[in-house]
């Protein structure tokens, strides 16, 4: 680079794919530069101190210039106590805010700042996924609009921004996955979700209407936010066991936040050491979110093992696995849905036909709820059964035997409905809802 006269300004104009190896070579040379290099080399690699030591200065300064430079240096060095205090306060406040946002881990930031000092795309992604700041938007001022219509428009706008905020934990989970290598007290950090919006030019801060943000939506949002926080802990992190969970994160009363954190730890395999009596301590209060999180988390931690103890826990909360004449248990449909999904994870790739038949039968189940009750989770239940069947038989389609082909025909039956009779003018109506069973059967057949 010195031979061809390449300068640092010219390096900045190159594409990052070309400039990166050159900057890396300069960075490595900076620590142990050769002593016989030309002056231009030391300037290029950022070692002007060595250039002055070896070659000296190009000219001598007179008394006036020396006094002028010294005066400028003294003027720059004079900093008031108030300015120093303000800078320290801003720095500490920013650091505390970064620790509660869930993004911008200092360890990851330090690495990326060294490797990519002028690439700010990662910082932009962190800014987009930061949910703890109040969103500021500018609305065009229209004097002809009434106050009532303007308030409705603002609420609709806030609702759209809230929908975006609800999706931020998913992106944050992907960005910060496995970025915490050690189990510390600050590993359990739930970044807040701010739904307030500041409207400009009025400058008013408006909150989302409580009727639009229902309790169910809020609980699921807290659940997803906690899952994203738990996924920050790396799977290889040591010391994340039941005692650590109880000491740092378990609240006095079970909540959707703690349930999401438990589920996230299960996804990273940290629930393998949880003993049965410890799991039953979470299942006994019959908190829906916690029950679903424990069943799915344990199944994910023991994925593909077919563990009998975990199977018994899932069976207690999944009536489809109980004998036909068993007593009816008042189990919510969502808990049964989580049990079926956990069954598929636990027996993933095992080709266990007994469990596969159970999942296949549940796709077209009609007596899911008692007469008079709402059937709003019927599609979720059927789709979960389809995924469970697909997980159990995943990748086994090429090894199908006659018994498996019978299940394939039943899946085709659930997709297309009843076959027409011999009379072309008559069509036998299926005894199940094809719009519910078809998506689940397609997923099962695709995974198989």
TrEMBL record:
The keyword Cell division applies. One of its GO terms (molecular function) is molecular adaptor activity. InterPro entries: Apc1 (IPR024990), ARM-like (IPR011989). Keywords: Cell cycle, Cell division, Mitosis. GO terms for biological process: anaphase-promoting complex-dependent catabolic process; cell division; metaphase/anaphase transition of mitotic cell cycle; protein K11-linked ubiquitination. The keyword Protein biosynthesis does not apply. One of its GO terms (cellular component) is anaphase-promoting complex. It comes from the Eukaryota. Belongs to the APC1 family. PANTHER family: ANAPHASE-PROMOTING COMPLEX SUBUNIT 1 (PTHR12827:SF3), MEIOTIC CHECKPOINT REGULATOR TSG24 FAMILY MEMBER (PTHR12827). This is Uncharacterized protein.
């Amino acid at each position: 680079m010195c031979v061809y006269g390449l300068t640092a300004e010219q390096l900045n104009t190159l594409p990052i794919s070309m400039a990166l190896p050159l900057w890396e070579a300069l960075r490595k040379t900076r620590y142990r530069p050769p002593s016989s290099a030309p002056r231009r080399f030391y300037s290029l690699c950022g070692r002007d101190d060595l250039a002055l030591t070896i070659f000296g200065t190009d000219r001598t300064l007179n008394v006036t210039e020396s006094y002028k430079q010294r005066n400028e240096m003294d003027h720059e060095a004079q900093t008031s106590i108030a300015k120093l205090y303000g800078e320290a306060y801003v720095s500490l406040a920013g650091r505390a805010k970064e620790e509660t946002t869930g993004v911008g881990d200092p360890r990851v930031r330090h690495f990326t700042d060294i490797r990519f000092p002028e690439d700010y795309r990662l910082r932009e992604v962190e800014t987009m996924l930061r949910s703890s700041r109040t969103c500021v938007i500018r609305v065009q001022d229209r004097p002809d609009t009434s106050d009532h219509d303007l308030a409705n428009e603002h609420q609709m706008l806030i609702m759209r921004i809230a929908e975006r905020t609800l999706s931020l934990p998913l992106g944050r989970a992907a960005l910060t996955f496995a970025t915490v290598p050690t189990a510390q007290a600050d590993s359990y950090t739930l970044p807040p979700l701010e739904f307030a919006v500041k409207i400009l030019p009025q400058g008013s801060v408006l909150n989302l209407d409580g009727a639009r943000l229902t309790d169910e939506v809020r609980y699921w949002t807290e659940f997803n936010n906690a899952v994203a926080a738990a996924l920050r802990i790396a799977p290889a992190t040591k010391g994340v066991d039941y005692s650590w969970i109880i000491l740092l994160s378990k609240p006095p009363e079970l909540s959707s936040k703690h349930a999401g954190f438990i589920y996230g730890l299960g996804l990273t395999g940290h629930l393998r050491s949880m003993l049965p009596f410890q799991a039953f301590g979470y299942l006994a209060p019959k908190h829906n979110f916690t029950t679903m999180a424990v069943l799915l988390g344990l199944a994910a931690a023991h994925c593909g093992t077919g563990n009998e103890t975990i199977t018994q826990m899932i069976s207690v909360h999944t009536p489809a696995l109980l004998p036909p004449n068993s007593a009816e248990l008042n189990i919510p449909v969502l808990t049964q849905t989580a049990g079926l999904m956990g069954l598929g994870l636990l027996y993933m790739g095992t080709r266990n036909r007994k469990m596969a038949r159970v999942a296949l039968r549940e796709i077209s189940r009609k007596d899911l709820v008692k007469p008079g009750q709402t059937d709003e989770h019927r599609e979720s239940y059927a789709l979960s059964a389809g995924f469970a069947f697909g997980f159990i038989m995943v990748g086994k389609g090429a090894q199908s035997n006659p018994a498996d082909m019978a299940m394939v025909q039943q899946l085709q039956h659930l997709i297309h409905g009843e076959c027409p009779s011999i009379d072309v003018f008559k069509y036998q109506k299926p005894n199940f809802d094809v719009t519910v069973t078809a998506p689940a059967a397609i997923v099962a057949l695709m995974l198989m």
